[in-house]
Design a protein that fits this description.
This protein is about 35% helix and about 25% strand. The protein contains 12 helices and 12 strands. The protein binds adenosine-5'-triphosphate.
Length: about 325
């Protein structure tokens, strides 16, 4: 067993500031199988991380290493900030805050009330969680889920909780369907309501043009319209899986598919025109990601992606070029 001294030294040497870069996801395939008795839709989807990142920085206020000691950690306070503007909540509704609180409960961090405790520290230690957003909000790119995953990974490191990735994924599942995938990244086949995921083999890189819209689309609204105008399909993801396995961009472009597209196009017809424009400009394929409004187009090279992006600037509020699959959450210690 680790001695008190060794542990103190480990705490003292550990970083008081940790940064996690976390990628967005795109859906390469999404089929809606139907409505379940509990009101959720049964899905089959293939998600892949793509190189547009949010950054979560977690920091012990004042850098006090003693804050990590489990006895002191019980008194931890949480402070949260972000640069995401008015569309991003700054309280418990933010998935990053919910993730922090979930990890706190799971590890006994911040669970003691300093006022009602005689043995508590004189100054209650605090952890700052700061979120820098580049992933568009409510855009079908799992931005909130990515932030939750990054917060779990970052705080696990900062507080030295010692949870492994599987344990973090288990906690992540309590926060939302896409969060466990965001803890790992890569490429995954998701079934059920999206919670059951299995990693799949994908060669790459693939080069994307990501067309983003400032006006969000609400996921529940898209599903509501889908129930009116869409049809559940029996379509299978085999062609996408095969294209990913062989790294065949042309085949992947042909196989991209999203049943929710019809609902997103009904709500926002200009998205269909934008998708068609991407195809007319020579994209290998183009599709709405998740519940939209982001539209992604696959190009045959980074160069073609840049040319295509330049041609699309009038169609979207923001256009970026990004490669997939992107590595999952990347952690760096900042001293
Ligand atoms: P998905 O692809 O999983 O459907 P999304 O990318 O469409 O997700 P998010 O960016 O996660 O959607 O935002 C959906 C809503 O969640 C926002 O409108 C916002 O109110 C709320 N939200 C909670 N936490 C966050 C966060 N960290 N970043 C952005 N939005 C958040």
């Amino acid at each position: 067993m680790e001695s008190d001294r060794t542990r103190e030294r480990r705490y003292a040497e550990a970083s008081a500031r940790v940064r996690v870069r976390v990628p967005a996801k795109v859906n390469l395939f999404l089929a809606v199988r139907g409505l379940r008795d509990d009101g959720y839709h049964e899905l089959v989807s293939i998600m892949q991380t793509v190189g547009i990142h949010d950054t979560v920085t977690v920091e012990l206020e004042g850098g006090e290493s003693a804050c990590r000691h489990p006895a002191v950690r019980r008194f931890m306070e949480l402070k949260f900030s972000h640069d995401g503007g008015p569309g991003v909540p700054d309280d418990e509704r933010n998935l990053a805050v919910r993730a922090a609180h979930l990890l706190m409960r799971a590890t006994g961090t911040g669970t003691a009330d300093p006022d009602g405790h005689s043995g508590g520290p004189d100054v209650v230690p605090a952890t700052r969680v700061d979120l820098s957003k580049r992933i568009p909000v409510a855009a079908g790119m799992a931005g909130g889920s990515a932030d939750a995953a990054a917060t779990l990974v970052g705080l696990n490191r900062l507080w030295e909780c010692g949870l492994d990735r599987d344990e973090l994924r288990e906690l992540a599942a309590e926060l939302g369907a896409d969060v466990p995938f965001c803890v790992t990244g890569g490429t995954a086949l998701a079934t059920g309501t999206g919670t059951a995921t299995a990693q799949v083999l994908a060669r790459g890189p693939f080069h994307w043009v990501v067309g983003m819209s400032r006006t969000p689309l609400s996921t529940p609204e898209v599903y509501r319209v889908f129930d009116e105008v869409g049809q559940p399909t029996e379509r299978e993801p085999d062609a996408v899986l095969q294209a990913l396995r062989t790294g065949d961009g042309e085949a992947l472009g042909d196989a991209l598919h999203n049943d929710l597209e019809v609902a997103a196009f009904t709500l926002r017809p200009e998205l269909e025109a934008a998708r068609d424009a991407m195809l007319a400009e020579g994209a290998l394929g183009a599709v709405v990601s998740g519940s939209g409004p982001t539209v992604v187009a696959l190009a045959e090279s980074d160069r073609q992606a840049r040319e295509l992006a330049a041609a699309m600037t009038d169609r979207f509020d923001r256009v970026e070029v990004a490669a997939s699959p992107a590595a999952g959450p990347e952690v760096s210690d900042l001293r």
